[in-house]
Amino acid sequence: MNRLALSKRIVKVGLPPGSLVHVGEVKLARPEIFLARYNDSFFEEVKVTDLKEDLKLSQEFNTWVKVCGVNDSQVIATLGEIFNLHPLILEDIMNTDQRPKVEEMPDYLFLVLRSLDFDETTKEIVSEQIALILGRNFVLSFEESLSPVFEPVWERLRQGKGRLRRLGPDYLLYTLIDAIVDRYFLVLERLGERIENLEEELVANPQREFINEIHALKNATLMMRRSVWPLREAISWIGRSGSPLIKETITVFLRDVYDHTIQVIDTVETFRDMLSGMLDIYLSSLSHRMNEIMKVLTIIATIFIPITFIAGVYGMNFEYMPELKWPWGYFACLLLMLACALSLIFYFRKKKWL
Fold first, then answer.
1. What is the DSSP string of 288-313?
2. CA within 20 to 30 Å of 309's CA: 190, 253, 266, 327, which one?
3. pLDDT in tens, 155-189
4. Cα separation of 100 and 154, whole Å?
């Protein structure tokens, strides 16, 4: 948790449950709200300016209210009044540090997810909270920013392609969940590329800087694990809950997105194992390099041991020593040293130590 989120949590200490205090980074100065009304033959989209006037529900149409920005407590409170949302639900919407979960209320389902995206500039994973509420003929989505995650769904709804207009808001809920999970695969693809490139460089030329890269990737996989594991449980619960808001025909689609979350989890676990193995490879490479250096130094020291011994013997200050006054003694000593060095080098090469 960053320092800003922690300071906002400290502000909430002592406040009664349901107090609307935004926790997290402010990504939009003011919320923007978009409305879509639709059925199998009709579609209308509106940018909401007057909440109480524009957000009147109709039994004739399904409604999707897309809220971008959750930092304005007045807007969130007004939406809570219009759709009769519990204060604790509103509190969770404004607290953007929630773990993925699902809550069943008498008239609606509340679902929290984490949307992940890969920032090509910083090469980091960007995480945002998305809250979804499913009612009898409406879906509310709350995003921290103007995220592109739901743009394909909105465009499909506008063009009337597929089942989206013909089926009810429960199918829209599934479609929004599926859009979020699909982006997990894009993030996994980018992570996989980084891991493969790093592994090749690590084997070819291990550098100390790779440690930071490995730890950054491990943190990224940990973030994905924290986002997907609870989501798997939430989707499983929705499919088995028997809620009257979820038709039996939609549970088939929910099982499909549940399978996708399992695939994401398996891939994340594989990446974590690969990164742990890469750390072992890095440490082994350093140990192997150190051993090679020590071997060379040991061989060099071994070669110079007899040479140093000979030089030490003939460097002693005694008057009576063999060959001390021999005219060719200096050259003979040098040849003896060279012969010792060459003999040791030949022996080391024969043993394949060099």
1. HHHHHHHHHHHHHHHHHHHHHHHHHH
2. 327
3. 888 887 777 788 888 888 989 998 988 888 888 88
4. 23
